[in-house]
Structure formats: structure tokens, C-alpha cells
Amino acid sequence: MNNSSFYIRNIVDKWQKPGLKIKVASIFIIAVIFTVLFFLLYHSSVQQSLVIQSLYVPVIISAIIFRTSGGIIAGLIAAMILSPQIPELPLDIGVAIFQETIAWGLGAGLFILVGIITGSALDMINHQYNQLQQASFFSPSTELPNKYNLLNKIEWHLNSETSQEFTLFIITIENATEIINNIGHNHFGNFFKTIASNLSQQLELSTDVYNIYENNIAILLTKDSEIDRPLFINRLISILEDPIKYNDIPIYLDTFIGAASYPDDGKGPNEIFQKAYIALNKAQKNSQTLSFYDEKLDDTGKSNLILLGGIKPSLDNNHFELHYQPKIDLKTNEVVSAEALIRWHHPEIGMIPPGKFIPQIEKTALINELTCWVFDEAAKASLLLNDAGLDLTISINVAPRNLQCDDFLPQITKILTAHAIEANSFELELTETDLVEGLAEGKKIFSELAKQGFKISLDDFGTGYSSLAYLKELDFDYLKIDRSFVDDMLAGEENKEIVSAAITLGHILKKEVIAEGVENKDTLDLLKEMDCDYAQGYYFSKPKPLLEFMDYCTQD
Ligand code: C2E
Ligand code: MG
Ligand code: MG
Fold first, then answer.
1. Are residues 537 and 479 in the same domain?
2. Residue 255 within a domain
3. Which residues neighbour 321 within 8 Å (Cβ) at sequence distance 6 or greater?
4. pTM, rounded to two decimals
5. Best of 483, 490, 534, 542 to mutate for ligand 1, by most ligand atoms within 8 A of CB?
């Protein structure tokens, strides 16, 4: 909200409910106008009809300030000024014809009517305005003041003469959906109101509790509040931890709180609001009950956005590159496949490893464009490898969001057709965690990909929580044991046994097993002993640009 709209609202509010000072001043002005007009009418030669018409002015002013009742009273006074009892008042001074009572009655009626019409019209406008205010400044479901009300309040606070410092707390109810499912959607508004009134009473708040968005509560703690901040926070957390009795059922809230303070964290209402949300986001991510805004949080958010903004231009300007890491068949010691791993040569930042940008991109639709680019590059590489007499499949890492997009498979098929390459030249790597997050979908997607002819690897095995029953149902070809287990194999008996168990499990499920992250000969020997099928890792080769990878494959 900008300053001018805040002032306009202030003026409208003052006009709506005039204070005592305005009322007294208005009575005085109205009385002066009536007196002056009375004297002009009876003791001056000013044109009489002009003065009589001027009597509408105090009637209208009175109706504006005191509404219908004020309009009626002022109308009566105007009528009395023109009273037929006053002999000096001729209907027309020029011809000295005196008014009849009926004519006076009509005139008086007109004054009162104007008073009533003006007063009622303003009452109606007022009512409409109040309804509009209610709709714009209060949540329709909870009737609590909303976000705009809060921003207005902050603006008002910043313009007041008290200390301007304040802290804004935003609370989110994580289990709102679960509560709605249990108590019913139509009860949630009332339930929310109960939470708000609990907070308001127990915290002894001098300001409102706001309902911003569906399941978010906001509380403004100003410097002039009775309670100091640490005590307020302790109380707030303990109130939220207590169950809320609703229809005699104790309901527990699952909440996170984000907080930002003025003037340390921002200059105006909108900025403080945004910072409190950034803090809330951090609390949710780190599973902390409460988090305060910290400048570093903003930097992370901003740098994520800057990174995301750079993806598209970098795709257009060839700033991405694929590196290839060999997969070795442990029976023949030969390279049988290559994993394509993306590298970003950012024009300003330099080399950015995939771990720094892939997780961010995977949350956006950009991942489709990126994976299509990887497929296109890998398809070209596959043709070059074939030309060099290297009959290798290429593994591509695919994000769950890719598979959820209906267009993804047709787009990939188009790329393969354009390069005249079969799907069985590619392995798709999907992480176990991705699968667990979308259990029901996983099965369908895997069989669809298998039908197309792609080989499938379950990447980073051991880091997710997929059940054995679920794994048994899935249609995949390779189980790829996560690097973290392979890395630590030599460090302790336990890790060795985990890797051995994973290999056995893979074989029972009739899958071939790949160990990733093999960095030394001892680990390799141990894996061979355990009957592991394939291995990948720095011991053989780090991921390399295509030509270097081809050199690696062709050297003896
Ligand atoms: P990932 O698919 O599990 O890839 C294996 C990662 O382990 C690669 O890291 C690889 O360089 C690294 N690595 C391989 N052998 C060793 C070793 O012996 N020791 C150590 N310390 N590391 C080893 P990178 O290239 O940084 O990739 C990280 C992750 O980024 C990948 O994990 C994959 O999940 C993702 N990623 C990479 N390229 C793409 C891509 O094109 N698309 C998608 N969606 N994800 C990608
Ligand atoms: Mg992988
Ligand atoms: Mg992996």
C-alpha cells in the first residue's frame, strides 16, 4: 500500500465517523450560517430568493455530519426561519404578498426532505463503503483482519508518534488440511477464530490477530506492548503447543513461525512482510519452531533465483557441457556404458557443479528443457561413439518432474527419431528417493519407459526408504548402490555387509548391480569378491569431456 492511499483511507475514515471536535465545529458553523441568513433575510435588502435557497447549505452540512437526524433538525430550523408567524417575511418582498401557511408548509417540507435524502444517501454510501471495507480488509471465512488490514496497520504504526520498532510474526498451520478433513471445511473458519482469540487473550495483545492467506496467522508486536519480545515468544510457542478444544475435541496444531523486525530487516510494511515469509520458509525447511529473518537467507534465495534466471540464456549460448564417466563390467573389465553428467560453465560465476543447480531446477518446469538438451547432446555423442567403434549405452539422469510431464516422453522420442537412434541405446537413472516420493506413480512410469525400450537404473540405492515389496513390483534393470556406502566399505565391517547385502538383494530381485564411487583398488577387489556386476568411480576415471572420454576408452 502506498502513502497516498493510506492518507485517502484516513480521510474517508474521519469523514465516516467524525470526532467530537469536528461535530462541535460543525454545530458552530451551521449556527453561524443560520444566523447570518436570518439577518440577511429580515434585515437586509439582499435578494430574498437567493437567501432562501442558501438555507439548503446548513441543512446539507448538518446531514453530512449528523446524517438523517441532523438533516431533519436542520431542515426544521430552516423551516422555522421561514415561519409564516414572522410577519416581516413576505413571499415576495417586492410585491409585499405574505406567504400562506400551506406555502410555508411546502417549503418547510422541502427543507426536511433534502435533509432526509442527503442523510439517507450518505448512510447508504457509508453502508456500501463498510461492506467494501469488510470484503477488502477482512478474511471472508474467518472474519479476521486480513493481509491488507495488516499492511495498513503497519503503515499507521509507522506514521504514529509512538516508537516505530516492531516485530512481525507469521505462523503457518502445517496440518490445516488434516484438521479440515476432520472437522469439515465449513468449521475451519470458526476453528481459526478460536485460535486467534486464544492467542489474543493469552498474549494480552494490544493489536489484532490477522488471518493472512488460508492457514497463516500474523501478529504484530510493537514496542509499546506490555510484554517484551523473549517473553512473548515463549508464551506464543507454549500457546501453540497446547491443544485447542474445539467441539470438546482437543486438536493439536503443527505450526512454524517466521519473524522479521522493523527497522533492522526492512524499510516498509511490504518488505517486512516478505522477510517474515522468508524466515518462515527457513523454519519449515529446517523443521525449527521459530526462525528470525537473517540477511543470508535472502542471499540464498536471491542467488537461487539468479541461477535459475541464467539457465535459459546458458542453454541458448551453449554454456552447458556433458562429461562422461565410464561404467565398467567387472567380469570383462571393459567399459560398457557412460554416465552423462552435466557441467555448467557460467559466464560470470565460472564452473558450477550440478549439485548446486540441479536440485533448484528440478523444482521448476525448466528441468524439461534441460533434460531434453541433455538427451540431444547425448544422442549426438552416441553417434560419435558408434563412429569411433565404441558400442556403449549412455546413462542419463532423469528428474521425477520430467516423468510427471505428459509432453516429456513424446519430446524425447522426437529427439531420438531426429537422430535415428533407438531407445535401447540409453539408460535412464532415477533416484530411489524420487520414487518413494511418488510411490503410486512410480510403477506406471517404470513400465511405460521399459515399453519404450529404455533400460532403467535405480540410482543412489540405499538413500531412500523404498520397501522390498515395492522394489519387487518395479520394472527396472540396474540397481546402483549409493556412493556413500561404497566409499566407507573399507572403513568398517558394517558398511561392507550393507554393500554385500545390497548386491545379494539386487540379484534376488534379478537385477544387475552397479557400485558407484569406487576410488581405489581394494574397494574394487572387494566388490568383485562380492559378485558385483558393474562399477563406476574415480579409480577408473573422473567424468570427462567427450573427446577425453573417447581417448580413455580407446587406450589400452
Ligand atoms: P549421480 O547421478 O549419483 O552421479 C554420480 C556423482 O558422483 C557425480 O557427481 C560423479 O561425478 C560423482 N562420482 C562418481 N564417481 C565418484 C567417485 O569415485 N568419488 C566421488 N567422490 N564422486 C564420484 P556430479 O557430476 O557432481 O553429479 C551430481 C549429481 O547431479 C548426480 O548424481 C545427479 O544426481 C545430478 N546430475 C548430474 N547431471 C545431471 C543431469 O544431466 N540431469 C539431472 N537431472 N541430474 C544430473
Ligand atoms: Mg546418476
Ligand atoms: Mg548416484
1. yes
2. yes
3. 342, 343, 345, 545
4. 0.64
5. 483
**What phi and psi, each to the nearest 5 degrees, are found at residue 492?**
-165, 155
Tell whether 314 and 253 lie within a shared domain. Answer: no
Q: What is the CATH number of the domain that holds 183?
A: 3.30.70.270
What residues contact 534, with CB distance under 8 A and at least 6 apart?
327, 328, 329, 330, 336, 337, 478, 512, 513, 514, 515
In a domain, 84, yes or no: yes
298 is a domain residue: no
Residue 493 shares a structural domain with residue 520: yes
- Please indicate whether residue 98, judged by its CB atom, sits closer than 6 Å to ligand 1: no
Residue with cell 543412489: 460
Q: Domain check: are 505 and 401 in the same one?
A: yes
Distances (CA, A) of 67 to 114, 149, 401, 518: 11, 27, 62, 87
- Cα–Cα distance between 460 and 397 in angstroms, integer? 11
142, part of any domain: no
Most confident of 47-61, 131-145, 232-246, 512-526: 512-526
Neighbours of 370 (CB within 10 A): 23
Q: Does the Cβ of 430 fall within 6 Å of ligand 1? A: no
Residues 339-366, mean pLDDT to the nearest whole number: 89
Tell me the pLDDT tens digit for each residue of 22-53: 889 999 999 999 898 888 887 888 777 788 88
483 lines ligand 1 (CB under 6 A): yes
Type of residue found at 533: D
Supply the pLDDT for residue 85.
54
- Burial label for 175, CB within 10 Å (0-12, 13-18, 19+), is middle
pLDDT value of residue 437: 56
* Ligand of minimum distance to the alpha carbon of 463: 3
pLDDT score, position 275: 92
> Domain span at residue 417?
303-554
Residues 266/280, Cβ–Cβ less than 8 Å:
no
User: Ligand 2 centroid to 396 CA: how many Å?
Assistant: 7
Structurally, the chain folds into a number of domains equal to 3
Q: Do 434 and 403 belong to one domain?
A: yes
Instruction: Name which of 446, 399, 394 is nearest 422 in CA terms.
Output: 394
Asked whether the predicted pLDDT for residue 2 surpasses 50, the reply is no
Average predicted confidence (pLDDT) for the chain? 86
